[in-house]
Design a protein that fits this description.
Layout: H1 10-38, H2 48-77, H3 91-106, H4 116-119, H5 122-142, H6 150-174, H7 176-181, H8 193-205, E1 210-216, H9 236-250, H10 261-272, H11 276-295, H12 298-301, H13 304-327, H14 335-359, H15 362-366, H16 379-392, E2 396-400, E3 406-410, E4 422-425, H17 428-433, H18 446-457, H19 461-497, H20 501-509, E5 511-514, H21 517-532, H22 545-558, H23 566-570, H24 575-604, H25 610-613, H26 616-633, H27 641-650, H28 657-661, H29 669-685, H30 690-708, H31 711-718, H32 724-734, E6 748-754
Length: 756
């Protein structure tokens, strides 16, 4: 009988036996280097692939370190006597390497938790600390007697315990229960009611004319702010100061704490004085503080205990390098010595990078006093800090969209962005037609911006414009080729959709829209108006998102690409008409952007839309099926979105869909057509600007969803590039819109008055 056996070649086995420990420990160090540099960009990444790679490195870092500890422990118990003398595993050095893995398990300062749920597992990490420390101690005793490296091993062991302990403490303090407990104020029993009433009863029993009067009690929490509100624009350091001040107050939002009217009034007074751009800058930094407190070691490092422990850990590692070089350099030879130096220098380099990260963090800038007048000896440092903060402010780049209406889009480079600066976009008609992804604006390229600046300085603007046109033509041809190659991927895509439909759909049909300054100014002004009238967006809960999404799309494609700006063409010299036309185009884009964004949240981020989602998944599925059936009957092909909208509007809707179909199907396709026609009629007959109506409706919908989304869901998105709805949420809180403010303003002081 034929017998099949699969065995690993002897050469590969020998290679593995020689290099498994060395390779594992170097791989663990390499992962630490990757994480300390790459982990911070996840809060500003636009592509999910980048975040997924960081997640993979985060998981592999712990696994690689644990695996290497196990290999070292096994090698100490079963030494390889037949190994090549040139690469023999020195048991003394192996025992010396083991504590370095505790340093690696402590992780870099830039990431302690990948997701908010990781903080809840702090107890698991504490147990891991005990077990791994026990494994290293076991390895250490297995290598005895070892008088040369004994003291060095102990030094690295304590440094590793400190680093691992820092990470565990950071996770513990960022767990939601402990995070809430750290912000709770001292219990307040209020005025002594029983004592007062006893005195009152005694006076009355003595037949003394006694009355109780109430006097307001001074607000004990009122204190002078380090940076009082000012008029006019904020400089870079003032933005950080105010953001840190509001972070200390409003971080309680994450754990559903309530705030006093004093805190609300201070915040609202500050933000009503600000421009839209300054408000955006403050909120960006404030969200970065939230990110640092929940996902990094900043809360631990910025304490006296943290500073002392960090100094000791770095001192132990530095002393170990010096002692190893001067006392044991003649004891060991070969590649193991090089690996040892790599581990020592790598640990020191990681600590130095972590120190620089701390120095240039927003938390350090928030501690600077008198930022406008630094001490003369500190002027160079203050100058460097100001330059660094200037690089991190929003960079706006002029961009012309398809209707030739200029906008300013966020163009901050990845290394300096505080969030992704993009808005995800999903469209029902595009999805049902399987059309290619499109966006209103293009993301500006940093390379193109720099090249344009250089060409402008050289007086070669025409050459740059020609080169840009050539690149666009090449890009169009590449796009055509990409679409044709898409046919070859169809079988594979269909196979993947059987297992991960939402992931594949998001990859194929979700586009990204750059964040524009005009959109933010419109959002800021609308919420500011609501705060003046204390208007909460409760009416939005009666509005169907899918209905308004389709109606917005129908109206958007029904207009010409110039936004029906005929007045501008006929009266080119009339500046008022031109301004009105440009404003109309902007409102049209705002409506389209927010409409597609809300559908993206509804379909792919349902946890953020729990308050308005309802039966959205069923309604979305029914509407998609009806749309696909309708498009197939009209022989519509991919990328014919405009024609599809025209066909939907051409259907006679004198009798409502509910009267014909009943309520078995939850589709709103032709109900949206009725709404779109009504909006067009209002504009035509009642002189109502339908785009102003729709843009305000979408701000209302996003506001309602933002205020009714769970706060920890907003906090979770901060580590994944951020969401526009989170900016709504925090800006609404600062304007005093929401249910997180208490009515009572404090205690009143009761006083007994005894008449004569």
């Amino acid at each position: 009988m034929f017998k099949f056996s699969l065995s690993i070649p002897f050469g590969i086995k020998l290679l593995w036996d020689k290099w498994n420990i060395r390779g594992s420990i170097l791989f663990s160090l390499w992962l630490q280097v990757i994480l300390i540099f790459v982990a911070p960009i996840r809060k500003s990444a636009r592509q999910k692939l980048v975040i997924s790679l960081i997640w993979l490195a985060y998981l592999l870092a712990d696994a690689a370190a644990n695996f290497a500890v196990g290999l070292i422990s096994n090698s100490q118990r079963n030494p390889d006597k037949n190994a090549d003398p040139k690469l023999v595993q020195n048991t003394d050095l192996l025992a010396f390497w083991a504590p370095f893995l505790l340093l690696h398990l402590g992780g870099p300062d830039t990431i302690t938790a990948f997701a908010l749920e990781d903080n809840q597992l702090w107890l698991r990490h504490l147990l891991g600390l005990f077990f791994q420390a026990g494994a290293v101690i076991y390895i250490f005793f297995q290598s005895l007697p070892n008088d040369k490296l004994m003291f060095l091993t102990v030094l690295v062991f304590f440094a590793g315990i400190i680093k691992y302990g820092e990470r565990t403490l950071a996770l513990y303090r960022a767990s939601l229960d402990k995070y809430r407990d750290s912000m709770l104020k001292k219990p307040d029993p209020g005025p002594n009611y029983s004592k007062l009433m006893e005195e009152y009863a005694f006076k009355r029993s003595a037949e003394l004319p006694t009355t109780i009067t109430m006097t307001p009690e001074p607000d004990k929490e009122t204190k002078a702010s380090d940076t009082p509100p000012k008029e006019g624009p904020l400089n870079h350091l003032e933005v950080v100061h105010y953001a840190y001040q509001f972070f200390l107050t409003f971080r309680g939002l994450i754990v559903d704490l309530i705030f006093s009217f004093r805190e609300r009034n201070e915040s609202r007074d500050f933000f009503t004085r600000r421009s839209a751009e300054d408000a955006l800058r403050v909120i960006e930094v404030e969200l970065n503080f939230i990110y640092g407190s929940l996902y990094t070691k900043l809360e631990v490092v910025y304490s006296w205990l943290g500073c002392i422990c960090r100094f000791l850990a770095f001192g132990f590692t530095l002393a170990t390098l010096g002692l190893f070089y001067f006392k044991t350099k003649d004891e060991f030879r070969g590649v193991d010595v090089g690996i040892t130096y790599t581990l020592l220098l790598g640990a020191i380099a990681l600590d130095v990078i972590a120190l620089l990260t701390i120095i240039f963090s927003d938390r350090t800038f928030a501690l600077i006093k008198n930022p406008d007048r630094p001490h003369p000896s500190c002027w160079p440092v203050a100058f460097v800090f100001k330059i660094f903060l200037a690089l991190k402010k929003p960079w706006w780049c002029k961009c012309k969209c398809k209707p030739n209406c200029p906008h300013q889009v966020l163009a901050t480079p990845l290394a300096f962005r505080r969030w992704s600066g993009s808005i995800s976009s999903h469209n029902l008609i595009r999805y049902c037609l399987e059309s290619k992804k499109e966006s209103i604006h293009e993301f500006p390229s940093l390379c193109l911006i720099v090249c344009k600046y250089i060409f402008d300085l050289l007086g070669l603007e025409i050459v740059f414009d020609r080169l840009t046109e050539i690149c666009k033509v090449i890009g169009r041809y590449l796009g055509v080729i990409k679409e044709k190659l898409k046919i070859l991927r169809l079988p594979f895509i269909k196979f993947l959709r059987l297992f991960m439909e939402d992931t594949v759909d998001e990859l194929l049909y979700v586009s990204r829209e750059p964040f524009t300054k005009d959109l933010w100014e419109f959002i800021f002004d609308e919420l500011k108006k609501k705060s003046e009238f204390a208007d909460t967006p409760e009416t939005a809960k009666r509005i169907s998102i899918l209905l308004w999404h389709i109606a917005t799309d129908l109206c958007y494609h029904a207009e010409k690409e110039n936004g029906d700006n005929s007045a501008e063409k006929e009266n080119g010299d009339n500046s008022a008409e031109k301004e009105n036309g440009d404003n109309r185009v902007k409102l049209r884009h705002f409506s389209k952007t927010l409409s597609d964004y809300m559908l993206y949240l509804l379909v792919f981020q349902p946890t953020m839309m729990s308050a308005v989602a309802g039966i959205a998944k069923i309604r979305f599925g029914d509407t998609c099926e009806e749309a696909k059936r309708f498009f197939k009957s009209r022989s519509l092909r991919p990328n014919e979105d405009k024609k599809a909208c025209e066909q939907i509007l051409s259907v006679n809707t004198d009798v409502g869909p509910e009267e014909v179909k009943g309520d078995r199907s939850k589709s709103v396709l032709f109900s949206a057509s009725i709404l779109a026609k009504e909006l067009q009629r209002m504009e035509r007959e009642d002189d109502e600007d339908k785009w102003m109506i729709m843009s305000r409706v979408w701000v209302e919908l996003v506001s309602y969803a933002a205020s009714h989304c769970r706060a920890n869901t907003h906090a979770a998105e901060v580590s994944k590039g951020g969401q526009l709805i989170t900016f709504f949420w925090l800006l609404m809180a600062h304007f005093g819109l929401g249910e997180q403010f208490q009515i009572n303003e404090g205690h009143a002081r009761a006083k007994l008055n005894v008449g004569k």
